[in-house]
Amino acid sequence: MLRILWLVVSLGAPAFGQTHAFEEAALRLKAGAEAIQREEQALHAAERQEFIERFNRLAQAMQAFQEEFGKSDGTVWPKKKAEALSKAIRQLESTRTWKLYSAKITEPRP
């Protein structure tokens, strides 16, 4: 009886060790996947923040241009304000978010 018990325990021992190794590998993979997901979320948040900041700069540039242009009742072109507005537009268009959404809009539909 003891021999059978010893045989079962000795044969089962490597299986327990392998199971532990597989569980450990699965935990490592899960931790790695969670780390990647956190990095993606942080990247998305940073891109969103960049887009918001550039959009706000564009709104401010439009406001400044409108105020300056309105002061002259549309008779004087505020060159510096127009250049600042143009720069704000280019900066917004250079964001990854803008490029992704504008590509979806301009994509030909089947």
Description:
The protein is elongated. The model has no long low-confidence stretch (mean pLDDT 84). 87% of the residues lie in helices and 0% in strands. Helix 1 (2-71) runs antiparallel to helix 2 (79-93). It has helices spanning 2-71, 79-93, 96-106. The chain has 110 residues and is mainly alpha-helical.
Average predicted confidence as pLDDT:
84
- What's the β-strand tally? 0
Strand percentage lies at under 5%
Q: How would you characterize the largest beta sheet?
A: none
Number of helices: 3
Low-confidence region ranges: none
How far apart, in Å, are the first and last alpha carbons? 74 Å
- Quickly give the structural class: mainly alpha
Give the radius of gyration: 31 Å
Shape: elongated
Q: What series of H and E elements makes up the topology? A: HHH
Q: Share of helix among residues?
A: over 70%
Question: What is the strand and helix layout of this fold?
Answer:
Elements (H helix, E strand, L loop, with lengths): L1 H70 L7 H15 L2 H11 L4
Helix pairs in contact: 1-2
In a few lines, what is going on in this structure?
With 110 residues, this protein is mostly helical. 87% of the residues lie in helices and 0% in strands. The protein has helices spanning 2-71, 79-93, 96-106.
Give the tags.
3 helices, single chain, mainly alpha, 110 residues
